[in-house]
Design a protein that fits this description.
The longest helix is centred in the middle third of the chain and has 33 residues, at 31-63. With 84 residues, the protein is mainly alpha-helical. It has helices at 3-26, 31-63, 76-80. Helix 1 (3-26) runs antiparallel to helix 2 (31-63). The chain has one domain (3-80).
């Protein structure tokens, strides 16, 4: 996977996130839809974190003179436990 394809995937996830956040405002009358949207938002946030982590790994490997294709997608638990 190239940096460009990862960035394009991130852009798609962000667009979906924005759409869900806008829709979330009108979902307050439909509890089931609101819950589904919130669950999807949570999944999107995790996927975004994993994609950003992969992109950072690739850039770090490239900067160090290594092969960026050696970067690995990390488990959600690993990425979500990073300190900010």
């Amino acid at each position: 996977m190239s940096d460009e394809s990862i960035a394009a995937h991130i852009e798609g996830l962000v667009a979906e996130e924005h759409k869900l956040r806008r829709r979330e405002e009108s979902d307050n009358k439909d509890a089931e839809q609101l819950e589904e949207d919130q669950e999807r938002l949570q999944a999107l946030e995790i996927e975004l974190d994993r994609c950003w982590d992969l992109l950072r790994q690739r850039r770090a490997l490239r900067d160090a003179g290594a092969d960026p294709d050696e970067a690995q997608v990390r488990e959600a638990d690993t990425v979500e436990r990073y300190l900010q």
